[in-house]
Design a protein that fits this description.
By secondary structure, this protein is mostly helical. Strands 1-2 form a two-stranded antiparallel sheet.
Length: about 120
């Protein structure tokens, strides 16, 4: 994989050098009304390419930051959900214990039918 990366970088660098040597004609660049400059075509394209590469890098960094923030928010939400689930499980256990205690206080089904048949 390193050889492939080296080959790609070397090829791109060689193509850039060849392009620069072949395109030395001056080109006038208009930035804003009244602001112009004259640069060789290759230099202008290298500057514009550098600006584009920088913009792409800034965008990639910004996207990474946004993803990291979203990941942290999701983790915080997940932790809050886990706490809430644990609270609900504790409540359920308390309710089960309360119901079991109340069921123990009720008379047995056989006793209630025996007392009703005696009357």
């Amino acid at each position: 994989m390193r050889q492939l990366n080296f080959l790609l970088i070397f090829s791109f660098g060689l193509a850039t050098v060849m392009f620069t040597l072949e395109n030395t004609a001056p080109t006038t660049v208009h930035f804003l009304p009244g602001i112009t400059t004259t640069l060789p075509l290759a230099a202008m394209l290298l500057v514009v390419g550098g600006i584009g590469a920088t913009a792409a890098w800034v965008f990639a960094v910004w996207t990474g930051v946004v993803k990291q923030v979203e990941r942290l928010q999701e983790q915080t939400e997940r932790e809050a959900q886990q706490v809430r689930i644990q609270e609900l499980e504790d409540d359920l256990q308390r309710y089960r214990a309360a119901v079991d205690a109340q069921l123990g206080l009720l008379p047995a089904a056989g006793e209630s039918s025996a007392t009703s048949s005696d009357n």
